[in-house]
């Protein structure tokens, strides 16, 4: 039997999604209509946050989140090196400086111990970060309580990069509630939990940050009289009061988002079931499997296994053999400081032993809601055969 190619992740689109998007295309608005605010309201409610600001990608959301928090040249942003490059590029867009905090090898998230040690040194050198961006890797919440405590002690802002994590929970609240942070970012790229094609959101409980991000997503233009600096010159009057961007989401995308959000809990439940099956079938192999903590409920955006030290030398062979069988294994992620563009910042790889260990041993297995039982069996059997 020839298997069809199994990707590591892909969207699930129903006829209801298609009908709702079609309806939006037939409406009077393709952009800046009623569906974007409707999706924002639904997202804020789902995330238990006061405000949600929709934009055309999580990358844009990270950018305007940094700007809204006042990030400028010479400020420092710290994030995890084991993330997508967007988590750190947002700092560079603002002319700020980037630095990385090593991960915890068990959770694959920013290590709170490494963060605290780095903060102590930075305080002595007068180089404390303005913003720290923890990333909820694969959908597993970071230790937000500890990060929140450190943010108060050392006076930095926190943006949660929850691009992987809508539908996940932490301490009995949805990721998005922002109890321990200023802003929470979601991504709606097709491989993520729910999708709008391209798209992202920033959630916050702070009205001022919400207003600033709304302004920045649309050229810095306002029609709100209370924000205007000149006297109203007529019905055409609007004012540009900041240097913003065109980061707006379209109505068709919001339509898809509204439709998808209704299924987010069932998507995550399905991902949890698939993850459990991986766990049961792989637990006897020399692999480090994802660790569910009692504090958090993972959205399982990714299922990442790490090879035990004795197998690390065979990682590339195992990876290539899986790909040759039509299994779209992947690797999330190459440490950001290893990217050629980041070479000029001269990060020392030895400063990040756990990130290096992670990068040498990790493999992402296929996990998405439409993954069929036979496909998952094929992935498991192939991995078992290659490792034994
Ligand atoms: C996908 C992703 C982003 C960027 O999301 P886009 O919506 O594609 O811009 C940022 N951070 C992380 C951790 C991601 O996985």
How would you describe the overall organization of this protein?
There is one protein chain. The chain is α/β, with parallel strands linked by helices and 388 residues long. 37% of the residues lie in helices and 13% in strands. The chain has 12 helices and 15 strands. The strands form 4 sheets. It has a 7-stranded mixed sheet, with helices on both faces. α1 (15-26) runs antiparallel to α8 and α5 (112-125) packs parallel to α6 (144-154). It starts with 14 loop residues before the first helix and ends with a helix. The mean pLDDT is 97. Pyridoxal-5'-phosphate binds next to α3 and α4.
List the ions, cofactors and other small molecules found in this model: pyridoxal-5'-phosphate
Q: Give the C-alpha Rg.
A: 22 Å
Strand order of the largest sheet: 1-9-8-5-4-2-3
Estimate what percentage of residues fall within beta strands. Answer: 5-15%
Profile the largest sheet.
7 strands, mixed
- Termini Cα gap: 23 Å
Structural class: alpha/beta
**Poorly predicted residue ranges:** none
Shape: globular
The pLDDT mean sits at 97
Helix content: 25-40%
* DSSP, total strands: 15
H/E series:
HHEHEHEHEHEEEEEHEEHHEEEHHEH
Number of helices: 12
Annotate the secondary structure layout.
Elements: H1 15-26, H2 35-47, E1 51-55, H3 58-68, E2 76-79, H4 86-93, E3 97-100, H5 112-125, E4 131-133, H6 144-154, E5 157-161, E6 169-170, E7 173-174, E8 183-187, E9 200-204, H7 207-217, E10 221-222, E11 239-240, H8 251-261, H9 264-282, E12 287-288, E13 296-297, E14 303-307, H10 315-324, H11 353-361, E15 362-365, H12 373-387
Parallel strand pairs: 2-3, 2-4, 4-5, 5-8
Antiparallel strand pairs: 1-9, 6-7, 6-13, 8-9, 10-11, 12-14, 14-15
Bound molecules: pyridoxal-5'-phosphate (PLP).
Pyridoxal-5'-phosphate (PLP) is lined by residues 57-59, 83-84, 86-87, 135, 161, 163-164, 187, 189, 200.
């Amino acid at each position: 039997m020839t298997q069809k190619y199994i990707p590591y992740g892909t969207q699930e689109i129903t006829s209801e999604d298609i009908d709702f998007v079609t309806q939006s295309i037939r409406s009077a608005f393709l952009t800046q209509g009623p569906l974007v605010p409707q999706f924002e309201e639904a997202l804020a409610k789902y995330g238990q946050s006061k405000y949600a600001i929709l934009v055309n990608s999580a990358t844009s959301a990270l950018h305007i989140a940094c700007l809204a928090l006042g990030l400028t040249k010479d400020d420092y942003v710290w994030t995890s090196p084991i993330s997508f490059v967007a988590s750190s590029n947002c700092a560079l867009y603002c002319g700020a400086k980037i630095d990385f905090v090593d991960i915890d090898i068990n959770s694959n998230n920013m290590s709170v111990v490494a963060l605290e040690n780095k903060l102590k040194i930075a305080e002595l050198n007068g180089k404390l970060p303005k913003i720290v961006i923890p990333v909820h890797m694969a959908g597993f919440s970071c230790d937000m309580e500890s990060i929140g405590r450190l943010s108060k002690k050392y006076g930095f802002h926190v943006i949660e990069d929850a691009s992987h994590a809508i539908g996940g929970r932490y301490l009995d609240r949805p990721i998005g509630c922002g109890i321990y942070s200023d802003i929470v970012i979601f991504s709606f790229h097709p491989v993520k939990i729910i999708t709008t094609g391209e798209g992202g959101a920033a959630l916050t409980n702070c009205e001022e940050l919400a207003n600033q991000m709304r302004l920045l997503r649309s050229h810095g233009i306002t029609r709100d009289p209370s924000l205007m600096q000149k006297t109203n010159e007529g019905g055409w009057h609007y004012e540009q009061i900041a240097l913003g961007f065109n980061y707006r989401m379209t109505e068709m995308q919001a339509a898809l988002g509204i439709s998808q959000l209704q299924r987010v809990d069932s998507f995550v439940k399905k991902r949890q079931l698939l993850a459990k099956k991986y766990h049961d079938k792989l637990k006897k192999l020399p692999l480090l499997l994802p660790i569910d903590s009692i504090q958090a409920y993972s959205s399982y955006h990714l299922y990442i296994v790490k090879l035990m030290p004795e197998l690390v030398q065979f990682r590339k062979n195992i990876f290539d053999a899986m790909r040759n069988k039509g299994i779209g294994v992947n690797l999330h992620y190459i440490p950001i400081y290893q990217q050629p563009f980041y070479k000029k910042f001269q990060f020392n790889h030895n400063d990040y032993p756990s990130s290096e260990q992670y990068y040498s041993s990790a493999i992402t297995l296929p996990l998405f809601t439409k993954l069929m039982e036979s496909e998952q069996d094929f992935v498991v059997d192939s991995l078992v055969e290659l490792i034994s």
